[in-house]
Amino acid sequence: KENSVLSLKEYPFQRRSDEEKKRIKELGPDRPNLQIQQQSSDRGRSYTRCFSGTSYGKRSWLAGCDVSHAFYCFPCLLFQSLGTETLWTTTGVCDLKHLSDKNSLHSLVNQSSEGASQPKRRRLLSPEVHERIATEVCDTILQHTMERFCFTSHLVSATLLQADRFEQYTVAFPEDALSRTLKAYPVLNGSKLKTELSLIYCKEEFRTCCGAVDLLQLFKENNLEEVFSETVTLLKILITTPMTTAEAERCFSTLKRVKTFLRNSMTQERLNALAMLSMEKRMVTEIIDFNQKVIEKFASQKERRAKFIFK
Predict the structure, then answer these.
(1) Residue 307 gets which letter from DSSP?
(2) Full-model pTM
């Protein structure tokens, strides 16, 4: 038999042709009836152990030889190398009493080696499939990008309150920018906002403002918030709308540095103050005599020394 132990010993598996190797793998291990009898004793009682066919059923990798009447490892016979244990390839196992002890570790090694010797193969894709998948991925990325940045109509509202354009707007009112602003912010009253903007464009006092913050500050100083209510609402929207997320991210980074593990018991008021000092560092350094003012403020507070009473 091609799959017998004697055949594999005389003519190793590595030297055979591909057709013979395929037939041997399909046949599996040779499992003849073995003439094995072994005298054993247990607790003063002697008995005879004989070969049983159930030994093959419990171990799918086990092979037998009807000439040497011994057990062999079928995978080791096929793929034996320099490090392969000779007991299972050359000598054979005849000890029925300790067969389970001898093959327990060996079976685990064979199972792991069989699993490692047959890695999962990736399915090869044709160039057409690769091109189709790449096209779908690119289309998905472009679609999500367009959806993410489709809401840009609110950005044009900033052009309505640019002081350097007020003189130009007195000649040609920005109807398109106003309509897009009203579409982005339906809460605004369009007719009233147009009337207020027309008045702002005509006055020289408003053309000296530098930005939306200065214009809003001018309205507050002159008590014009009720007169230009819609413009004030639009200014508040423009001032509070963040252009980027850098400031919010900087706040979280500052909190990690300010409130450490050792400062975990810090109150909310102190945390807010330290975080504001850290985030607005440049503005603090530009304040004249800031350190002196802090010292004077601290010195003007009431005395807070602890009183120690010794008994």
Answers:
(1) P
(2) 0.38
